[in-house]
Amino acid sequence: MHRKAIVHLRRVDPVLGSVIERVGSCRLRPDPTGTHFEFLTRSIVYQQLSGKAAATIFGRVVTACGGRPITPARVARVPDDALRAAGLSRQKLGYLRDLVTLARARKLRLAAIDEMSDDEIASQLTQVKGVGIWTAQMFLMFRLGRPDVFPVTDLGIRKGVQVAYGLRTLPAPERVARIGARWAPHRTVASWYLWRLLDLEVLAA
């Protein structure tokens, strides 16, 4: 699936090529399950939480919506107290309400989002309170499978570059962007390899 990207990355950057050799096959796949709205709801719930805790809260939110697929209309009908009881903080509840409001008013054009450019999608999604550029980039990478997304402010990406290149200090996002410029138009796959490199470092520690 990612053969062309891997051939390109190995050709333009021997350092990243070594990372690819170490990590092995690219298992990056976009998540096609559910709807875009559900993916964004999950993204809000998962912010700053461990995967297990977030999954529990998200499951409770689904239950509060009647156990049916999450839609703007169904979330809108659930009282705040019920969503708070599911485990949402007041801040995340506010984010979710804003997502619902924008989606129902069609200011957030989720039905047309697949046809938009990466920049247009980022502009759309960051209208929502609590959805910043990082969350928009994760949507582009892991929901839509866009090929050339590079979250240079992500701590894991910065640490991955530091490990791969043997840098003494954590590189600033600007330096990460310069290093990764040669990886275009396949920076999504490059990012995946940097994250997996860190996973291997943790296992080896």
Helices and strands in order, then pairings?
Elements: H1 3-12, H2 14-23, H3 36-46, H4 51-64, H5 72-77, H6 80-85, H7 90-104, H8 118-125, H9 133-143, H10 155-165, H11 173-180, H12 187-204
Helix pairs in contact: 1-2, 2-12, 3-4, 3-7, 8-9, 10-12
Describe the structure.
The mean pLDDT is 94. α3 packs antiparallel against α7, α8 crosses α9 and α10 crosses α12. The longest helix is centred in the C-terminal third of the chain and has 18 residues. The protein folds into 2 domains: 82 residues, Endonuclease Iii, domain 2; 108 residues, Endonuclease III, domain 1 (Orthogonal Bundle). The protein is mostly helical and 205 residues long. The chain is elongated and about 55 Å long. It has 12 helices and no strands.
Give a short overview.
The chain has helices at residues 3-12, 14-23, 36-46, 51-64, 72-77, 80-85, 90-104, 118-125, 133-143, 155-165, 173-180, 187-204. It is mainly alpha-helical and 205 residues long.
Unreliable spans are none
Average pLDDT across residues? Answer: 94
- Tally of individual helices: 12
| Rg over alpha carbons | 19 Å
Helical fraction: 55-70%
Could you say which structural class the secondary elements and strand pairing correspond to?
mainly alpha
Per DSSP E runs of 2 or more residues, the count of β-strands stands at 0
N/C terminus separation: 31 Å
Let me know the largest β-sheet.
Answer: none
How many domain units? 2
Q: What percentage of the residues does DSSP assign to strands (E)?
A: under 5%
